[in-house]
């Protein structure tokens, strides 16, 4: 680029020299006539000289003008030359910078190539290691499958042995009970001997005067019992004290006359899904979503036992109506377990093909009624764990089981929005209760039957409570007081009040 600028300068200088030479030639041509005229006479030449002088002056002016134009052209060309020189310098600097950048990029490129080669080698190594690890994993998975198969076999053998042990224990318990029954005749046996076609005569011994249950119409108290929802309530036996359990992992006992809590039981590690109370009202049992059950002593408020053994959430529990010792529970692990509260562990396990949503002891303390997801009502012998009988109660899952105070009737509710009353002895339907607006709210919605067996109450997803009289099954009374789906209803054994609980954790007391 520097050579081209020098060439431009030299060309400009040559043009200036040519212009000067041209000017010199013009001046020589202008003086040549004057020299020739000197040889001629002065008089003749005077006029010619004058004319020539004038012409020379004009030519001289033209020369000056040409000189000025050439000077201006020279100045312009010099300025252009300087600009070109500055431009050339800028281009040279730019080229130099680009060369430096090119060099730097080449270095970076070479470094990246080295890094890429290293990463490629590392990747190849990782791929080879992955293949070896995958092969090891396949071997371990095969061993794991073999171990699982062997474990299942061992579990089956263990369960078989446990069932054998449980059967032996049940036989021993049965022998013990038979021996005790020889020395002592219970009131339930007397009651059973005095039954004729399931009816106890008022004049016969053993007759219990249940309080007459009228259809309630007034909400006496509305209580916010639990945060997150209340899914289980029940009355103490022959009492108007109400027990409730909810999503806040607490169990509360309420005075229904005042609507105030009497006590609160803590210690449950999961949501309370169902409740039971022993027939002497001394212990409260809660079924929990933590796969366990918790047994509280009501007087002290302390946990007596934590019953473990289920492998899934425990959805239902009930206590024997004749003994404070036995409790039955069911969970979503296809098992029904019978527990001894004195010992604090399971004494019998019943395996069911369909999960059980609800169950209840019958009044004899020996028969267990259970409602299942497949819609069947099943009756079990609690001593042997064997199935006594079953019937298809509903077209969809059974959500509730409630045994009457006489033990002759059992009320079932299902997701088909029907409430059926069965005779326990024949498993025939004694009545069906339905209504257009009544919709079962959940798989664990609990309905109830009054102590005198004349009324049936069930909650609905629209927040209403439907109460049917057995004499007018097609004309239910509708109680409105909840703002969310009603999950459970419970009737006091005294005949009143009726209690209901909803998904918002509110409890209503009806009279």
Could you tell me the mean pLDDT?
87
β-sheet strand percentage: 25-35%
* Main sheet summary: 4 strands, antiparallel
Assembly level? single chain
In short:
This protein has 511 residues and is of the alpha+beta class. 36% of the residues lie in helices and 32% in strands.
Fill in the keyword field for this structure.
30 strands; 511 residues; four-stranded antiparallel beta sheet; elongated
Provide a descriptive summary of the structure in words.
This protein has a 4-stranded antiparallel sheet, with no helix packed on it. A 4-stranded antiparallel sheet has the order 4-5-6-7, with no helix packed on it. Strands 8-9-10-11 form a 4-stranded antiparallel sheet, with no helix packed on it. The longest helix has 142 residues, at 42-183. The termini are far apart. Mean pLDDT is 87; it is low at 186-210. It is of the alpha+beta class and 511 residues long. The chain has helices at 2-37, 42-183, 187-193; strands at 195-196, 199-200, 219-224, 230-235, 241-246, 251-255, 260-265, 272-277, 283-288, 293-297, 302-307, 314-319, 326-331, 335-340, 345-351, 356-361, 367-372, 376-381, 387-392, 398-403, 409-414, 419-423, 428-433, 448-449, 455-459, 464-469, 472-480, 486-491, 498-502, 506-510. It contains 3 helices and 30 strands. It folds into 2 domains: 2-112; 185-510, Methylamine Dehydrogenase, Chain H.
């Amino acid at each position: 680029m520097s050579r081209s600028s020098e060439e431009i300068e030299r060309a400009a200088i040559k043009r200036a020299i040519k212009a000067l030479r041209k000017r010199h030639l013009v001046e020589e041509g202008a003086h040549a006539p004057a020299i020739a005229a000197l040889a001629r006479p002065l008089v003749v030449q005077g006029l010619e000289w004058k004319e020539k002088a004038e012409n020379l002056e004009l030519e001289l002016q033209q020369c000056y003008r040409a000189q000025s134009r050439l000077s201006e052209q020279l100045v312009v060309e010099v300025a252009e030359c300087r600009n070109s020189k500055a431009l050339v310098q800028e281009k040279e600097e730019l080229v130099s910078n680009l060369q430096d950048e090119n060099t730097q990029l080449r270095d970076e490129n070479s470094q990246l190539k080295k890094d890429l080669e290293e990463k490629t080698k590392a990747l190849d190594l990782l791929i080879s290691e992955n293949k070896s690890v995958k092969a090891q994993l396949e071997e371990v998975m095969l061993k794991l499958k073999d171990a699982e198969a062997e474990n299942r076999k061992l579990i089956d053998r263990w369960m078989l042995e446990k069932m054998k042990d449980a059967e032996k224990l049940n036989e021993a318990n049965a022998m013990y009970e038979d021996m005790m029954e020889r020395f002592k005749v219970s009131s339930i046996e007397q009651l059973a001997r005095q039954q004729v076609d399931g009816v106890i005569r008022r004049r016969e011994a053993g007759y219990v005067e249940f309080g007459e249950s009228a259809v309630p119409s007034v909400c006496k108290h509305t209580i916010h019992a639990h945060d997150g929802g209340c899914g289980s309530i029940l009355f103490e036996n022959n009492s108007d004290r109400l027990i409730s359990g909810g999503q806040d992992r607490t169990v509360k006992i309420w005075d229904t006359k005042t609507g105030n809590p009497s006590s609160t039981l803590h210690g449950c590690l999961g949501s309370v899904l169902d409740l039971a109370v022993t027939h002497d009202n001394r212990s409260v049992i809660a079924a929990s979503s933590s796969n366990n059950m918790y047994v509280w002593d009501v007087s002290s408020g302390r946990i007596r036992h934590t019953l473990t053994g289920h492998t899934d959430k425990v959805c239902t529990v009930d206590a024997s109506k004749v003994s404070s010792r036995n409790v039955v529970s069911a969970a979503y692990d296809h098992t029904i377990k019978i527990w001894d509260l004195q010992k604090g562990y399971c004494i019998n396990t019943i395996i069911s093909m369909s999960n059980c949503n609800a169950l209840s002891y019958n009044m004899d303390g020996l028969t267990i009624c259970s409602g299942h997801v497949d819609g069947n009502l099943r009756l079990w012998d609690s001593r042997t764990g064997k199935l006594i009988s079953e019937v298809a109660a509903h077209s969809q899952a059974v959500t509730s089981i409630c045994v009457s105070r006489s033990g002759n009737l059992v009320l079932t509710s299902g997701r088909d929005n029907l409430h059926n009353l069965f005779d326990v002895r024949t498993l025939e339907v004694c009545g069906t209760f339905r209504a257009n607006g009544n919709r079962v709210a959940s798989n664990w919605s609990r309905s109830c039957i009054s102590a005198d067996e004349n009324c049936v109450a069930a909650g609905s997803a629209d927040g209403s409570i439907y109460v049917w009289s057995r004499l007018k099954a097609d004309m239910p009374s509708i109680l409105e007081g909840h703002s969310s789906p009603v999950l459970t209803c419970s009737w006091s054994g005294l005949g009143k009040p009726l209690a209901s609980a909803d998904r918002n954790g509110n409890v209503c007391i009806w009279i």
